[in-house]
Amino acid sequence: MGEKKEPLITINLNWCKGCGICYHLCPKGVLGKDELGKVQIIKQDSCSKCRLCEDHCPDYCIKIGG
């Protein structure tokens, strides 16, 4: 059996307050906002793992793995 692959981007929406820092900093347009203004993944395959979103999230709700 193959290894279970960790998701590239993990978001804890319970912690997200919708500040928008993450999707404004994302150089690849991977993140956007949903109808409530909270972060959502739009183009995960474009993620370069730069970690700008993870490093600048004031609520620590984004994790980049993989």
* Strand adjacency order, main sheet: 1-4
CATH fold naming: Alpha-Beta Plaits
Gap between N and C termini? 18 Å
CATH architecture: 2-Layer Sandwich
Describe the protein's architecture and organization.
It is a single chain. The two termini are 18 Å apart. The protein has 66 residues and is α+β, with helices and mostly antiparallel strands. Helix content is 15%, strand content 18%. The strands form 2 sheets. A two-stranded antiparallel sheet has the order 1-4. A two-stranded antiparallel ribbon has the order 2-3. The longest helix has 5 residues, at 21-25. Strand 2 and strand 3 (39-41) form a beta hairpin. The chain has one domain: Alpha-Beta Plaits, CATH 3.30.70. The protein has 2 helices and 4 strands; from the N terminus they run E-H-E-E-H-E.
